[in-house]
Write a structure and sequence with these properties.
Largest sheet: 7 strands, mixed
Strand content: 15-25%
Order of helices and strands: HEHEHHEHEEEHEHHEHHE
Helix content: 25-40%
Distance between the termini: 32 Å
Number of strands: 9
Shape: globular
Radius of gyration: 18 Å
Number of domains: 1
CATH topology: Rossmann fold
CATH architecture: 3-Layer(aba) Sandwich
Length: 298
């Protein structure tokens, strides 16, 4: 067994659902998967070998782009990440690497903080006519060609999809300049683990303590870390209790909710994420963290 997940599994899964809501299911091959396996990582051996996300829709990239631009969860997370960057970069211009960047949908906002490049393993998400196509390396993160170091590395809802956590964090460290910052988001709490996590290729959910240990083991200093999407705790628990079995294998891409509902959920989530900056909530559906590579790091 490889020390990391296959590239298709890592990225297809990441596209399949937001970590806080999990409301974006996809087709899958469940040979060797049982309902019991959905309720706690690590994946059983049969699940590891047999469960793969299979997003074969021809317009997969367009669907994802539409969700990114309009769906409340993506809108709220983007606002939270931008506020975090404004709070930690202090106006400094940075060279930025966006890991799992898709088609660079976030880059128009990221360019306010510096120059941006990306790594994206799923070539279906990168438009050939994207004017930034040459800035995106289509490759697996752990095996990629990139060696140039950057000031800021983003990994938004990616780490949980990589089996070899230590290798992924170490790779991020190797791509940062001394003093560089690592901003990441991950899903929180294994007690929220459900079949959606299995379906979407997660290897783990996190607590602040576990994520801090993973970062510090690779030499990072944790600058800030907090739980967010706190209001999602109850819906996630309800989902786990009510949906005991995975759906049959049909693909079921989520749609953007009706305009008013989408607006309300976005505003609630935006308020939640803002409140988490000043209130140390003890739990939430996700974690956002900022870590720093010390100046003297080799």
């Amino acid at each position: 067994m490889s020390s990391r997940a296959p590239a298709a599994r890592i990225i297809d899964a990441r596209r399949a659902c937001p970590s806080a809501s999990g409301w974006f299911a996809s087709a899958y091959n469940s040979d060797g998967f049982t309902a019991d396996e959905a309720y706690g990582p690590p994946f059983p051996a049969a699940g590891r070998g047999a469960l793969y996300i299979s997003l074969v829709e021809a317009n997969y990239g367009q669907i994802y782009a539409d969700l990114w631009r309009r769906h409340w969860w993506w809108r709220a997370r983007e606002g939270m990440v931008l506020a975090t960057l404004r709070g930690h970069l202090n106006g400094a211009r940075s060279r930025i690497l966006d890991v799992g960047c898709g088609d660079g949908l976030f880059w128009d906002k990221l360019r306010a903080f510096g120059s941006v490049e990306g790594i994206e393993p799923d070539e279906r998400l990168v438009s050939p006519d994207n004017p930034d196509r040459d800035l995106i390396e289509v490759n697996d993160f752990l095996d990629g060609r990139r060696r140039e170091k950057v000031d800021l590395l983003l990994m938004l809802d990616v780490l949980e999809h990589i089996e070899n956590e230590e290798a992924a964090v170490s790779r991020a460290r190797d791509l940062l300049l001394p003093g560089g910052q690592f901003v990441l988001t991950v899903p929180a709490f294994n007690f929220l683990w459900s079949y959606h996590d299995v379906l979407n290729g997660h290897f783990r959910r996190y607590t602040k303590g576990r994520l801090a240990r993973a970062l510090e083991k690779s030499g990072f200093e944790v600058i800030s870390m907090r739980y967010c999407f706190v209001w999602m705790l109850a819906p996630l628990l309800v989902r786990k209790l009510l949906f005991r079995k995975p759906p049959t294998g049909a693909s079921a891409f989520t749609s953007v909710p009706p305009k008013l509902v989408n607006w309300i959920l976005q505003r609630v989530s935006a308020f939640d994420c803002s409140a988490s900056r000043v209130i140390p909530f003890p739990a939430g559906g996700s974690i956002i963290a900022v870590a720093r590579l010390p100046e003297g790091a080799a």
